[in-house]
């Protein structure tokens, strides 16, 4: 399903808004919680009980689902709050979402970076209402509800109100204005109005004591009359929420169209940073959608950290580094470098305040470290940023935190024994030592760099030399085959463990199913036994999980980029589409979509090595705006698939590189340095229908350890 939503968002902004049904995992849609197979339906129709804010994008069982501050336009009594109505005539575009409710209300929402603006068009009615519910959060699934710990709501009259709810240890404040001339404005609690009340305070709320509460505006409307509700949000109190509202919406005038236009302009600017020519309409649509999904998360709330008083970038919904460090962060470094550096600055500050670089970090108290997934992944992004010559970070201070973080959790056992279980963390920590050593050497700390490089070589302890795969261990969402083809810093030595090029390629071919029978995909709610049979095949899952993102590119290191071309082309063609199920797995905060963007460009970033692998692109020409420069990938000999022809009988496009030039100079290697891409230039690829010898001789660099 992808687990994305059609709600209004701003590029990497703090706020999103969407219709709320309570379905998994974004609050939008019809489906129940699922992690395997085809999802079950919670509802038979697309429906909503209102419109909420702060949605996840593309995550799975993330356990913090937000959907705070529900706004519900109603022509029913307050007792009906929480009832869901069918949605019709939905419309979604970047920064805007609209739908008709069965009640006859047309609902439109747009967002800015820290604001949301709702516009409701009512039918003729003597008692219309707009209800603000500050008590709700999460999803309508088992264990999906979020209960505020503390809350306060204040009605100031004249269409103004404010409130703060402490959710997951974070104080979320909202300041709102409603253009409701002649309407009454009241507080409510447990679906009962509080005449004359101006403030509600809740000092200690529990699951058993929570009753819904909030604010209501009510009055008569003529058919076609619109009501606008403007909301500013902050994690630093109601006054800062009011300032955010003023900055983006102005004072006292309808702001919907100006906020919508400003956000549309921001989206256009961001999406224009990748330009493509050629390709079928469907593939161009998927590409634009992937780029859009790549730029929703992380959320940046500058000057909004509730945990430290200083100004500066604050990033949340890093869900999780395991998902985004390979593909999405390199994409941000290319087309949104300022935000990429803000992310690193925020991560360093989290490490200062909480003692660790987080593996995941959400709008909640404490870093979500997701230690079962992985260890020490921020190190790769920091090493890449320094290699690109980025400024704005105290690199010496960053190195201090990188070294300290290597001793946390699994790091102590790695330090003492050179191997840890789950065995994948041995690879994480060895790679992080290598990345940290690069920064230490660049800063002329040779003694530290030598020690880190020595420990970085301990990746060999994770592998069984008898079979060339990882040792038996516990694996997070996969098995040792999924994890055995990670792109390490010394792939030459890794390939030797598998018996050299021939043995490594044979093992990869087995993993990708060359010559094997097709695999039956799991259906609705597959039983554990069915899933176990699938996992026992030890086969490529088709980008359904994070380790599989880089596995197709391992062929490059054995001199077979043509194999990479076949697998990547198949994935782009068969696993992505424009309809429901158009993504082969959770989008994971944009990590999967960023993979699609890079693969369509014919590039793959090797995170932590300041390196790009080169492959046949999906489009005849593409231009990547990298900072102030432009990197162009163009092809010749590229044959398009005929429009409207799909399936195995389609005439496939040429998919093998025959030769290449970079800025007019012959390029015989199937890789580029990140500096080559970021400084701008022109990569020309001549394509053909059959594999060639291009890229077979010169391998991507391997960094061997020399004691």
TrEMBL record:
**GO CC terms for this protein?**
cytosol
Report the domain of life of the source organism: Bacteria
Glycosyl hydrolase family domain location: 240-688
Q: Name one GO molecular function term.
A: peptide-N4-(N-acetyl-beta-glucosaminyl)asparagine amidase activity
Record InterPro entries: 6-hairpin_glycosidase_sf, GH-type_carb-bd, GH92_a_mannosidase_put, GH92_N, Glyco_hydro_92, PNGase
Instruction: Give the matching SUPFAM superfamilies.
Output: Six-hairpin glycosidases (SSF48208)
NCBIfam families under this entry? aman2_put (TIGR01180)
Protein name, as recorded: Putative alpha-1,2-mannosidase
What species is given as this protein's source?
A: Actinoplanes octamycinicus
């Amino acid at each position: 399903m992808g687990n994305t939503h059609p709600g209004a968002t701003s590029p990497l902004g703090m706020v999103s808004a969407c219709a709320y049904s309570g379905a998994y995992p974004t609050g939008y849609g019809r489906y129940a919680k699922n992690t395997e197979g085809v999802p079950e339906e919670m509802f038979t129709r697309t429906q909503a009980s209102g419109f909420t804010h702060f949605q996840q994008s593309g995550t799975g069982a993330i356990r913090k689902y937000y959907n705070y501050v529900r706004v519900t336009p109603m022509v029913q009594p307050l007792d009906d709050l929480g009832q869901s109505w069918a949605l019709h005539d939905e419309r979604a575009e970047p920064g805007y979402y609209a739908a008709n409710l069965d009640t006859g209300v047309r609902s439109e929402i747009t967002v800015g970076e820290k604001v949301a603006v709702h516009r409701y068009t009512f039918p003729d009615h003597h008692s219309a209402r707009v209800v603000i519910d500050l008590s709700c959060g999460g999803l309508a699934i088992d264990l999906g509800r979020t209960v505020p710990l503390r809350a306060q709501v204040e009605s100031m009259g004249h269409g103004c109100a404010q409130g703060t709810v402490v959710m997951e240890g974070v104080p979320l404040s909202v300041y709102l204005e409603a253009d409701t001339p002649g309407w009454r404005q009241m507080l409510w609690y447990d679906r009962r109005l509080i005449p004359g009340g101006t403030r509600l305070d809740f000092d200690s709320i529990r699951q058993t004591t929570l009753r819904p509460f909030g604010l209501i505006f009510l009055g008569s409307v003529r058919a076609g009359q619109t009501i606008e509700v403007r909301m500013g949000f902050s994690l630093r109190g109601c006054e800062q929420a009011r300032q955010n509202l003023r900055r983006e919406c102005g004072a006292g005038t309808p702001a919907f169209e100006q906020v919508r236009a400003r956000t549309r302009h921001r989206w256009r600017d961001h999406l224009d940073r990748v330009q493509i020519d050629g390709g079928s309409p469907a593939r161009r649509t998927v590409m634009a959608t992937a780029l859009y999904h790549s730029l929703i998360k992380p959320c940046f709330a500058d000057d909004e950290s509730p945990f430290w008083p200083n100004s500066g970038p604050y990033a949340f919904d890093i869900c999780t580094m395991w998902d985004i460090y390979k593909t999405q962060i390199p994409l941000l470094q290319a087309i949104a470098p300022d935000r990429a550096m803000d992310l690193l600055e925020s991560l360093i500050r989290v490490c200062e305040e909480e003692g660790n670089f987080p593996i995941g970090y959400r709008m909640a108290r404490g870093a979500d470290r997701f230690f079962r997934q992985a260890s020490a992944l921020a190190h790769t992004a920091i090493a890449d940023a320094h290699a690109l010559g980025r400024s704005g970070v105290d690199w010496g201070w960053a190195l201090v935190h990188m070294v300290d973080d290597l001793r946390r959790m699994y790091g102590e056992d790695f330090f003492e024994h050179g191997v840890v279980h789950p065995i994948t963390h041995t690879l994480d920590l060895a790679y992080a030592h290598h990345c940290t050593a690069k920064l230490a050497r660049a800063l002329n700390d040779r003694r530290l760099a030598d020690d880190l490089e020595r420990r970085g070589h301990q990746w060999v302890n994770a592998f069984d030399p008898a079979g060339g795969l990882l040792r038996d261990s516990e694996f997070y969402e996969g098995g040792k085959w999924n994890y055995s083809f990670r792109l390490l810093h010394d792939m030459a030595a890794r390939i030797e463990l598998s018996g050299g090029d021939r043995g490594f390629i044979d093992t990869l071919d087995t993993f990708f199913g060359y010559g094997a029978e097709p695999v039956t995909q799991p259906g609705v709610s597959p039983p554990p036994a069915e899933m176990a049979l699938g996992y026992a095949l030890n086969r490529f899952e088709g980008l359904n999980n994070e380790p599989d993102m880089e596995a197709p590119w391992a062929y490059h290191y054995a001199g077979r980029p043509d194999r990479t071309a076949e697998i990547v082309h198949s994935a782009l063609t068969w696993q992505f589409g424009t309809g429901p199920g158009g993504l082969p797995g959770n989008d994971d905060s944009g990590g999967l979509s960023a993979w699609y963007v890079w693969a369509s460009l014919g590039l793959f970033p090797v995170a932590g090595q300041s390196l790009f692998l080169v492959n046949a692109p999906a489009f005849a020409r593409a231009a990547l705006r990298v900072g102030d420069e432009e990197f162009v990938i163009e092809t010749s000999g590229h044959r398009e698939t005929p429009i409207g022809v799909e399936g195995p009988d389609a005439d496939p496009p040429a998919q093998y590189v025959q030769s290449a030039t970079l800025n007019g100079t012959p390029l015989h290697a199937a890789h580029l340095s990140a500096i080559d891409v970021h400084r701008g230039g022109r990569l020309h690829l001549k394509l053909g229908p059959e594999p060639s010898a291009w890229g077979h001789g010169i391998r991507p660099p391997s960094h061997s350890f020399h004691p």
